[in-house]
Structures are given as structure tokens and as C-alpha cells.
């Protein structure tokens, strides 16, 4: 995976899926974390961001998604577990198949190696009420852009 430590912190190359259904968005968190994020994962060497996103959804929740389009390219700067992060992330609007069980359950579990993941469909109109990172998403998901945007964000 394209993630490495640096003397000043850690670098991540991440891909992210924006899945919406019935005015809700799919969010997730690691069982040990107290905040939510959009599902996705790290891109592996030689893999495109879109291919990595399809792989991550299949590995974590056994769903084959369809990429609709690229929404945001984001440089995200934040601190996590005492490390400063510099993350490059591609946010894709995605479709989950209509016959998927994932659409039937408001909350369900997923797995990433040995980490238990909690997935939840959350009302977009209530995102300001939860701890969601990057915080840009609280407004960005209300106004999904028609064209790809480049964003630099610091939390």
C-alpha cells in the first residue's frame, strides 16, 4: 500500500467511496475510534484509485460497486494517533447494486484485516451532529459538485 512514515509524520494515498441511498450516506468507523469517515482504503503500488476502491469495498463488505465519477481530489492534513498526516485522496461517487443486502441494513459490520469496522447509513441532513472527518464532508456532501474539485483541507 502507498503509505509510509516520514520524519515529519506519515503519508497516505487513499481512495474513498461516496455512496448515497434514500438521502443517506454510507459512513464507517473502526470499532476503537470515536469518529466516522467515508469508506475506502489505501491504494496499492501499480493500482489505480478506482480499482483500489472496487477492491476495498469487495474486501470490507463483499459488495462490487460501480464508479460513477470523480468528485474531489483532496490534500488532507490532520493528526491521528500522535502523528501528523499528509494524505492525498480521491473521492468517487459510487453505486451499490440495488439487490445488495448492504442497502437493506441501517448498520452492519465489515472487516479490514484484524480491525472490526462499523458501517452505517446516516442522514445527510444530520451530518453536522456527528464527528465526521475530514470535516469538509459535512458541507461537501450536502452540495455534491457537478464537476471534479481540488480541495486542500486541514483538520
Describe this structure in words.
The protein has 2 helices and 9 strands. It is mainly beta. The chain has one domain: Nucleoside Triphosphate Pyrophosphohydrolase (Alpha-Beta Complex). Strands 1, 2, 3, 4, 5, 6, 7, 8 and 9 form a 9-stranded mixed sheet that branches. The longest helix has 13 residues. The radius of gyration is 15 Å and the shape is globular. The model has no long low-confidence stretch (mean pLDDT 95).
The gist of it:
This protein has helices spanning 49-61, 137-140, and strands spanning 3-6, 9-21, 24-30, 40-42, 66-80, 83-95, 107-112, 115-123, 149-154. It has 155 residues and is mainly β. Strands 1, 2, 3, 4, 5, 6, 7, 8 and 9 form a nine-stranded mixed beta sheet that branches.
Radius of gyration: 15 Å
Order of helices and strands: EEEEHEEEEHE
How many DSSP helices?
2
Task: Return the average pLDDT rounded to an integer.
Answer: 95
Helix content: 10-25%
Low-confidence stretches: none
Main beta sheet, described? 9 strands, mixed
The fraction of residues assigned to DSSP E strands is over 45%
Report the top-level CATH class: Alpha Beta
Question: Pairing-aware structural class of the strands and helices?
Answer: mainly beta
Amino acid at each position: 500500500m502507498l503509505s509510509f512514515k516520514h520524519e515529519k509524520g506519515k503519508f497516505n494515498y487513499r481512495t474513498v467511496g461516496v455512496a448515497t441511498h434514500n438521502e443517506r450516506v454510507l459512513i464507517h468507523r473502526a470499532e476503537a475510534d470515536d469518529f466516522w469517515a467515508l469508506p475506502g482504503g489505501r491504494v496499492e503500488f501499480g493500482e489505480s484509485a478506482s480499482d483500489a476502491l472496487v477492491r476495498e469495498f469487495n474486501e470490507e463488505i463483499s459488495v462490487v460497486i460501480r464508479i460513477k465519477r470523480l468528485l474531489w481530489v483532496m490534500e488532507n492534513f490532520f493528526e491521528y494517533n500522535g502523528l501528523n498526516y499528509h494524505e492525498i485522496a480521491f473521492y468517487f461517487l459510487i453505486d451499490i447494486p440495488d439487490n445488495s443486502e448492504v442497502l437493506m441494513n441501517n448498520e452492519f459490520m465489515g472487516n479490514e484485516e484484524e480491525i472490526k469496522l462499523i458501517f452505517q447509513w446516516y442522514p445527510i441532513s444530520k451530518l453536522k451532529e456527528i464527528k465526521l472527518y475530514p470535516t469538509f464532508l459535512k458541507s461537501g456532501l450536502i452540495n455534491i459538485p457537478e464537476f471534479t474539485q481540488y480541495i486542500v483541507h486541514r483538520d
